[in-house]
Structure formats: structure tokens, C-alpha cells
Amino acid sequence: MSASIVSQLVRKDFRLVRGVVLSFVLVSVLFIGILSVMQGHVPFVLMANLGFIMVMGPAATCGIVVLMKTNVMEKEKSTQAFIMSLPVTVKEFTRAKLTLNLSVFTVFWLAIMAVAYYFAFGRGLLPLGALPFVTMIFMGGFLAYTLILSVSLLSQALGLTVLCIVLFEVGTSASMWTIAYFPPIGAHIWDAAPVWNVEAVTVVAVQAALAVTAIATTMLVQNTRRDFI
User: Fold this and answer.
1) Which helix (H) or strand (E) holds 139?
2) How many other C-beta atoms lie within 10 A of the C-beta of residue 218?
3) In whole angstroms, what is the distance from residue 185 CA to residue 78 CA?
4) How far apart are the C-alpha atoms of 86 and 3, rounded to whole Å?
5) SS in 3 state form for 167-211?
6) DSSP state of 226
7) pLDDT confidence of residue 41
8) pTM score of the predicted model
């Protein structure tokens, strides 16, 4: 019964957001096409900056819009009160929200990672030495998303979720600039081959561990609740 309820909630939310997801996918495809035309016709610095913004922007925005529609706005519009009046536990509700949001964002994020790697390394925009740092950028974005998702589920508050979106996005940018100027990592960005030294592996491992911890903590806290209406 539990698995059936979770799957029904996931399908309900997916029907609600599938139009939004499709719209962002189409925007992403359009941006990728524009980047393909731009490469070789604009300065390297402009191409690199626009490239990351145009590749990552639609996926990141899609993730935020989907979690706002399925988590926060559901509470704001009192739809959640109706859902929780059904035979649904907080644990099942949380599992459904995590399944839907993480699945949509992860698939989209992995797809644009592949596109970014193709442009950056397959088409020679960046040297292979930048591979660890680019990986950290995408892991940092994924970590920021999981933290925002966790806050949205735990707080069910619009104001706090928006505040966390701003703080985590700024924090991610600041941390990436700090890492870029960290000698053991920054010194190898322009190398001809990737250098996965202890520092680079540690950064990626910590990012992954924090993302997993955020999701696990959300489940543990929600499992102790009986109601959050």
C-alpha cells in the first residue's frame, strides 16, 4: 500500500509539472543550439561564461520551479491539507516529494553535464586539466539544489525557501571562486591532463557526502513527524 501511495503521489506531481519541465527542456535545447553556432565566432572568455550560464541556467531554474510548485506552493494554496487528509503518512508524502524532485533534477542535471563536457572538452573549449574543477562546479550546483529541496520540505515556508535559494546560490559561487584560487586545484586547471590529487578528490567527495546527508537528514526528521499541516 505504501509503495502504491508513493507512486500515485509521484504521478500526481509529475502531471502537475510536466509542462514546466518540457518548457525548460526546450529552452535548454535552444540554448545549446545557439552555443553551437556561437563557438568559434566569439571570444573565448565570453563563450566560456555564456556557455556555463546557458547550459546550467535552464536546468537549475527548472529544479527550483518544480520544488516550489510541488512543495511550497502546495502548502500556500492549501492543497497539502487535502492530501494529508487522505490515508497518507508524512513519511510517504516526503518519499514522494523527494522521488519526484530528485528524479527530475538529477536527470536534467546529468544531461546538461554531458553537454557541458562535450563543449568544454570534446570541442576543445577548455583543456582537460579543467575537468576536476568543472566537475566541482556541477557537484556544487547539485549540492545547493539538495539543500534548497531539504529546506523546502522541512520548513514548508515560502519566505525561508526563497532566502535559502539566494544564500545557497551566492554561497556556491563564492565557494567555487575560492576553490579556483586554491593552489592545489587552481594550479592545474590549465594543464593538458586532469589532475585528480587528494585535494580535488576530497572536494568532490565532501560535496557528494553533504548532498546525501541533506537528503538523509530530511527523511529522518520527517519520519519523526506525524503531521505538518
Assistant:
1) helix 131-155
2) 21
3) 48
4) 15
5) HHHHHHHHHHHHHHCCHHHHCCCCCCCCCCCHHHHHHHHHHHHHH
6) S
7) 78
8) 0.90
